[in-house]
Amino acid sequence: MVAIHITTGSNTPIFQQIVAQVRAAIASGRWKVGDPLPSVRSLAKELVVNHNTVAKAYKQLLQDGLIDSHQGRGYFVAKRREIYTKAERVRRVRKLVQPLVSEAITLGLSSDEIVSLLKQELGKLRQSDE
Amino acid sequence: MVAIHITTGSNTPIFQQIVAQVRAAIASGRWKVGDPLPSVRSLAKELVVNHNTVAKAYKQLLQDGLIDSHQGRGYFVAKRREIYTKAERVRRVRKLVQPLVSEAITLGLSSDEIVSLLKQELGKLRQSDE
DNA sequence: CTACTGTACCATATAACGCGGTACAGTAAA
DNA sequence: TTTACTGTACCGCGTTATATGGTACAGTAG
């Protein structure tokens, strides 16, 4: 069991769906440092997609520093590294927050509701991160 | 002055950049109900893009119910309509919040920092909404 | 040796994106 | 009415992104 599922015919590319879900699995603590990821070929087989598509997703995660690769052994959840400066990390998150706020407000949600939803999602994470 | 600017060579399509910025302008209160949007052709000229690209963006915003169109007159910021049920709106926002949380956490931000960033962006909005 | 890993290619097909052009209907002011 | 704007709908074209299928090679572990 891998707990990754994709939706073909979606507006978001398959490889991005994989990236997002691996990222979520790591962020939530479901996958811990050192845990092996499903191999490129096995995950491709399970999702019924091409192995190149999975490889593309893993390549992205590797570049983001979220996973390590060991030729012949596989991919593993990486120890958290600071690949960006504090300012850069804040900048990146802000860039994600802005469209979220715009959409949520135009959808008719109140500020309190938005904050509440965020806290709710944050609450789903494990406290295991020091 | 229109206060819309795009970045060519970005990973996000031009028409989506336009959608996001119009949405932000409306959400922030900078553009109010009834305000005319720049015409398809004039905005296209200003951004140095094709008029079809702007039309595509406006079509999206029209479908989202954020703007009204009047043939021969132009586009105008629409009165807020509830085109989705409460549950559906929450569901949509949650779908946006989840990847944000994943990315922010894996980037190394604390929950408090994330909440703080959100509140900060919310604070930039006008209180003019009823 | 064998079967698994990552990794790197290649060619191909399809779709998305953006451009340029054309066209037509509605609106408003000269 | 004429003119100059508006939205709107096409068409074709080129470029890029996405995904597929195949092949190949190097490293790892039993």
Structural class of chain A: mainly alpha
Mean pLDDT of chain A: 93
Specify the helix fraction band of chain A: 40-55%
Rg over C-alpha atoms of chain A, rounded to the nearest angstrom: 17 Å
Largest interface: A-B, 41 and 41 residues
Oligomer state equals homodimer
Shape designation of chain A: globular
Task: Give the spatial strand order of the biggest sheet of chain A.
Answer: 1-2
Order of helices and strands of chain A: HHHEEHH
- Give a short account of the largest sheet of chain A: 2 strands, antiparallel
Low-pLDDT regions of chain A: none
Note the beta-strand portion of chain A.
Answer: 5-15%
Structure annotation, total helices of chain A: 5
**End-to-end separation of chain A:** 28 Å
The tally of beta strands of chain A, per DSSP, is 2
Would you mind describing this structure in some detail?
2 copies of one chain form a homodimer. The first copy, chain A, contains 5 helices and 2 strands, in the order αααββαα. The first copy, chain A, is mainly alpha-helical. Chain A has a two-stranded antiparallel ribbon. In chain A, β1 and β2 form a beta hairpin. Chain A is globular, with a radius of gyration of 17 Å. The A-B interface holds A 20, 23-24, 26-28, 64, 66, 80, 82, 84, 89-90, 92-94, 96-109, 111, 113-115, 117-119, 121-122, 125, 129 and B 20, 23-24, 26-28, 64, 66, 80, 82, 84, 89-90, 92-94, 96-109, 111, 113-115, 117-119, 121-122, 125, 129. Chain A binds a DNA duplex (30 and 30 nucleotides) through α3.
